[in-house]
Design a protein that fits this description.
139 residues, alpha+beta, 3-stranded antiparallel β-sheet, 3-stranded mixed β-sheet
Length: 139
């Protein structure tokens, strides 16, 4: 995996991923940024959310569950001093679908958290991780 990050100006940076996609990052105004894009740590948290959501949908679909939607709400706490690593992250999954089996949803969350989601497992080296979930029945 590769990525090149280029400084644009001030505290704005542009990342070009190995797959050819661009992601902008910027700092808060109090740090010299212009608040034009997400902070790098926000992208790290979003990446963990995307990684685990990907797992959940794939696992449930392979289990022949009718998934209509999946969102992961993340809340993170950081250390008060440098390095301000994540110290606690709460993952709350809202899985929407028709006739979803609660045991299968719970299993999918557990498999993602413990086996498949590289991003959250890596963040779990510094942060306490909490996973909760709910099912929303849809037509």
């Amino acid at each position: 995996m590769e990525c090149t990050v280029r400084w644009i100006e001030g505290r704005t940076f542009l990342a070009e991923t190995g797959s050819g996609h661009l992601v902008a990052m910027d700092g808060a105004p109090e740090a010299g940024g212009r608040n034009l894009a997400p902070r790098p740590m926000e992208l790290l948290l979003a990446g963990a959310g995307g990684c685990t959501a990907f797992d959940i949908v794939m696992i449930l679909e392979k289990g022949r569950q009718v998934v209509k939607g999946c969102e992961v709400r993340l809340e993170a706490e950081r250390a008060p001093s440098d390095p301000k690593v994540f110290t606690r992250i709460r993952f709350h999954y809202v899985v929407r679908g028709r006739g979803l089996d609660a045991n299968r949803v719970e299993r999918a969350v557990k498999l993602s958290a413990e086996k498949y989601c590289s991003a959250s497992i890596m963040l779990g080296k510094t942060a306490e991780l909490e996973h909760t979930w709910e099912i929303v029945e849809e037509e």
